[in-house]
Amino acid sequence: MSEQTIAAISSAVGEAGIGIVRMSGDQSLDIAKRIYRNYKKNTVDNFENKKMTYGYIYDQDEMIDEVLLAYMQGPKTYTREDMVEIYCHGGFIAVKKILNLLLKEGARIAERGEFTKRAFLNGRLDLSQAEAVIDLIDAKTDKAYEASLLQLKGSVASKVKDIKTKMLDLLARVEYSINFMEDFEDDLPIEPVYEKSDVIIEDLDALINSANKGRIIKEGIKTAIIGKPNVGKSSLLNALVQDNRAIVTDVAGTTRDTIEESIDLGGISINIIDTAGIRDTEDLVESIGVEKSRKIAEEADLIIAIFDVSKDFDQEDKEIMELIKNRKSIILLNKNDLSKLMDKNIIYDNFENNMIIETSILKEEGIKELENSIIDLFLDGDIKVSNTTLITNLRHRDLLVKARDNIATAIKSSKKGYPLDAIEIDLRNAYNQLSEITGETIEEDVLDKIFNDFCIGK
Ligand code: GDP
């Protein structure tokens, strides 16, 4: 039984020159024929495949809009089904009227991500590529965009496929041993199995290790700027925002009590936590003191701790210093332009030198150094995403870890002398977990969860 024809508005709804309404499924062509009239306002018998045509959308005798329409015949389409895209006027009304008309003519409204879900179910994309589509749409920085584009091209899928091929080889070897022992009631050397599994574990580890960088590239670095009142937190925030393109994200209809401001540092997003608290320097109660610093530091990937060297090092500074021990942090010894009271050695003695930068935020000294240190700290100075496969998706990472653990368990059991049949089960599980990444084996509810993250119309 063929799937129902689905329709949705695929462009963002809002004031815009053009809006796009999209349809996919068997009925697309028929519906299009019923509602479209050409430039002479005549109905048409057919559409040329993948050619845009200029005309009008009509609901019976009422003209709805002047449009361009493209018919794309399956299976060489995004969903592998027949598709129709209608390019009408943007804004709220034209797109909505056309969508309603499609629904009246027999299409049903598409669920979130349903076009891409069909692309996956019909074999045009594997699951990791489908997930890359969400990330591509969500990308806020160049690097996040690059990483998802690579994944869309199949970087993760092909790495996983490589590993799966090696897994099959390993499984074949284990099965050979099992059969051999049954047939000859004798042992076959097991070492080759260990060698093969070592290589696989190495491959998996490399991918798992890339996930940290992957997450940073995808989600940005959650950054806390902490320090006593008046040390220069808000000045730093302003300097960073001024220096770098700020990323504006519109989250419609939500009021957030903590504001997160993001800046784009060479393609990496630095998400500053609680900018409201930092900026609110008028109100001393609200300005960030030690207690609040502690709270925002808890959830941060990176802490930038500022000390005012023109003042004596006091108890509060000490508490701030304690707070950042064993955390990924960068220390700014600020107001370096003023005469110094603080004994900087208290700080130098407690931290490695590469974490400490002497700054004058007022004179914009040391800001570049800070920016470079951030990149160094998180990406080993390397923000290229094109030379390796990066795991940016948490689901993929979790499955890789599970697969790795299963293989490690199998090998451990084998070394303890467990029967090979039991070991084979762990290895099969690992294989299946890898298959879940690309979606060859996947539970329906997991699939629904993934596509629920999509926007409507994609
Ligand atoms: P916050 O309370 O930590 O956010 O501190 P602010 O950024 O509001 O800075 C407090 C005061 O210190 C302001 O008057 C800033 O202009 C000043 N200030 C910040 N950085 C420097 C600096 O490097 N040198 C000097 N001399 N003053 C600074």
List strands and helices in order, with pairings:
Blueprint: E1 6-9, E2 18-24, H1 28-35, E3 36-38, E4 52-59, E5 62-72, E6 83-89, H2 93-104, E7 108-109, H3 114-121, H4 127-138, H5 142-152, H6 155-184, H7 191-219, E8 221-226, H8 233-243, E9 246-247, E10 261-265, E11 268-272, H9 275-279, H10 290-298, E12 302-308, H11 315-324, E13 329-334, H12 345-348, E14 356-358, H13 367-379, H14 394-415, H15 420-438, H16 444-452
Helix pairs in contact: 4-5, 5-7, 6-7, 6-15, 7-14, 10-11, 14-15
Bound molecules: guanosine-5'-diphosphate.
Guanosine-5'-diphosphate is lined by residues 227, 229-235, 278, 281, 287, 334-335, 337-338, 360-362.
By CATH, the superfamily of the largest domain comes out as P-loop containing nucleotide triphosphate hydrolases
Helix content: 40-55%
For the residues shown, what is the average pLDDT?
Answer: 88
Give the radius of gyration. Answer: 29 Å
Q: CATH class of the largest domain, please? A: Alpha Beta
The string of secondary-structure elements, in order, is EEHEEEEHEHHHHHEHEEEHHEHEHEHHHH
Structural class: alpha/beta
CATH architecture of the largest domain: 3-Layer(aba) Sandwich
List the total number of helices: 16
Question: Please, how many domains?
Answer: 3
What is the CA-CA span between the terminal residues? 23 Å
| Uncertain regions spanning at least 5 consecutive residues | 250-257
The largest pleated sheet is described as: 7 strands, mixed
What is the CATH third-level topology name of the largest domain?
Rossmann fold
Widest sheet, order of strands: 3-4-5-6-2-1-7
User: Got a strand count?
Assistant: 14
Q: Per DSSP, what share of the residues sits in E-state strands of 2 or more residues?
A: 15-25%
Structural shape = flat
Query: What compounds are bound to the protein?
Result: guanosine-5'-diphosphate
